[in-house]
Amino acid sequence: MNHILVLTVLMVVLSVPVVAGSLDLTNDAATGGPGQFAAEEIRREANAKGMTLGHDATATRIALTVVGKGSNAAAQSYSLRVQYEGGRRVITVRGADETGAMYGGLDIAEALRTGTLDALQDSDHTPHIAQRGIKFNIPLDLRTPSYTDPSDAAQANIPEMWSMAFWRELFDDMARHRYNVISLWSLNPFPSIVKVPEFPNVALEDVWRTKAKLDASFGPQGRDFVRPEMLANHEVVRRMTMDEKIQFWRDVMQLAKDRGIAVYWFTWNTFLFGAEGKDGITSNKTAPRTIEYFRASVRETIKTYPLLAGFGITAGEGMPLHEFKSISKEQWLWQTYGEGIRDGLKETPNRKFRLIHRFHMTGLGEVQKEFAELPCTLDLSFKYAVAHM
After folding, report:
1. Which of 303, 302, 311, 268 is CA-nearest to residue 144?
2. What is the pLDDT of residues 174-209, one digit of tens each?
3. What is the pLDDT averaged over residues 355-377?
């Protein structure tokens, strides 16, 4: 008996909406850099769909606007309004601010990409969580490590931290996914990012990484993250003066601002990598010269980077109790970061700035007592369930 096997093949055809026609895009100058980014995203998606851009009388008109300072709308919020004028469709984004206008524009870009532009209707949008951020342990340089630097991955990524293409790709994606904060974490970033007049020999030229073989013997407290053999066996991955480094980070922060993203520097806090042994700085963390160095570094970082949103600090790693007998950890943090912030904001008292004090190895009462005269916003960061929020 012959058996005949019959195969029935089902062909499933997925229907993908096709956007056709043309767009007439206008972008109010008040939307700033964020609005410009959203406009570029709209143009890119329209081009990908084969749409023409121009002032055709039948074109769908897209307008990105900001409602103005007199509005009571929440920061980052926006509305979409859809109407018809002279037989053509008009979609208006009304942002409460530059970032809101950008998010509304990105909604339109996404509708173009998914073929759902015709489905857009009147809507209002306000963020449920105001600050939506990414924590980033940043491998700046062999000599100024972060908490994850004793690894092959971090050493390989050191050159990328000094590539504008990296930051552009990162910030573009953050904006598309509505992230608006990035915190850059380093044990002591100052030698790699700022010049301090009172400590002229601390600023680091060039960018280094180690060629030494790394293993799992590094401690959990960060104290041995720069070993002599790592310094002895290093390579220069980029030649840069400190002035060039400063301009680079100014450009990074401008790029972030143009995507609605605030940039913070976080530290752990008395690590002296890159500074110890220079300009009178010793390993004594509570010495007057050490306190002077950190205070001046905080001051100069604020003055050097007008777009910096704030600092984050920790009364934890790098601050062992046996080294803080003549002065408490919170007193040290006030005399360095608190006073440094006050010095840095003295010439621009209306500047929006934030100090985020991690609620880690410290107590609320002492924080409130020591930082009572802080001239900017003080927030507490609480690590719950060993996670971040």
Report:
1. 268
2. 999 999 999 999 999 999 999 999 999 999 999 999
3. 93
Between CA 270 and CA 20 the distance in angstroms is: 60
The mean pLDDT value for 300-310 works out to 98
Give all domains of the chain, ordered by start, each with its CATH number: 22-125 (3.30.379.10), 133-381 (3.20.20)
* Predicted pLDDT of residue 72: 85
> What pLDDT score was predicted for residue 388?
55
What's the rounded Cα separation, in Å, for the pair 25 and 60?
8
Tokens (6 digits) for 319: 């601050």
Which long-range contacts (C-beta less than 8 Å, at least 24 apart) are formed by 366-371? 366/328, 366/330, 367/330, 369/330, 370/330, 370/331, 370/333, 370/334, 370/338, 371/330, 371/334, 371/338
Rounded to an integer, what distance in angstroms lies between the CA atom of residue 105 and that of residue 37?
9
Tokens, residue 4: 């005949």
Residue pointed to by tokens 């960061």: 381
- CA dihedral of residues 312, 382, 221, 293 (deg, nearest 10): 20
**Amino acid present at 373:** E
Residue 104's contacts (CB-CB under 8 Å, 6 or more residues apart) are 38, 64, 78, 79, 80, 93, 94, 95, 125
Contacts of 26 (CB under 8 A, 6+ apart): 61, 62, 63, 64
